[in-house]
Protein: Mitochondrial adenine nucleotide transporter BTL1
Amino acid sequence: MLKTDFESQKNRYRVFGNMALVVPKELDELEKPFSLHSPKPFEIRLQVPDLRVPIRNFLRTREVGEFLSGALAGAMTKAVLAPLETIRTRLVVGVGSKNITGSFIEIIEQQGWQGLWAGNGINMLRIIPTQAIELGTFECVKRTMTSAQEKWKQIEGPKLQIGHVNVNFSLSWVSPVAVAGAAAGIVSTLACHPLEVLKDRLTVSPDIYPSLSIAISKIYKDGGVGAFYAGLSPTLVGMLPYSTCYYFMYEKLKKSYCQSKKKRSLNRPEMLVVGALAGFTASTISFPLEVARKRLMVGALQGKCPQNMVAALAEVIRDEGLTGLYRGWGASCLKVMPASGITWTFYEAWKDILLVEKRIL
Structure:
């Protein structure tokens, strides 16, 4: 081997005892430590997208503002009116005294003042998503239906010709408010019904269900997942007329009052009154269904759960007569009227704060 060849190859020798091995140049280069100035063999760079602007824009959308407004309004209302909700539930399901004053005294004597807020923790957890979903769904469906009606008017809707007869299909006879109210009640009920079951169990039988965790465990052990949807069918049946009437009455009363006073919107005291009247009307119309619903949901606690809504109504009439269908109606109105008025007042106030676009009547 020539000297020049040896000099070029000598740095590639590795000595192991009495043996010498020639290391390929490529491997030899990999063994050299990287200097601060030598280029790296490769590098991976991950570009994390900046989500601040999309998130900020999303939070400023009308739908998110209405959703949050409903949640905040529901939470504030329930915190104030929890004692009335407790008394109302006891009267409806037939626990203890049959009048408001007697039920109030019984709760104080048996559980103390904190008994008036029995189940309020789960009630708050229930009302926040329920009110948010309900009001958010109502606003979204109402806008969608109104927009659909306007588009159908522009294109005059689809037509069907049968011989010499022309049939025009129109959405003008459909009330967007009524459809939106029905959709709001159904969607919120399907989403949050298990929380309603837990709330009623904690309110009616705090000795059997002293905490939320015990209530969840016991209900699941007794009936599985289906037990959390006890009374769902009558709830949906009862919710449909209530929710439809409730939102329809509020919107119509608000619009009629503003037109008579030649003003664009209600002030806070007017919202309180209009909301209370809407709640009173809807509750009065659907109250017998509410009685049947409550009986089905908590009847198992007394060992005599009716099979269906018709059976529950028949049982009430048989035991208490027709007046039994409105047992607890006074307490219900006492709770529903201020709750409805306060909810709408808080809701509209939060919308004015959270929505970028100001509300237009």
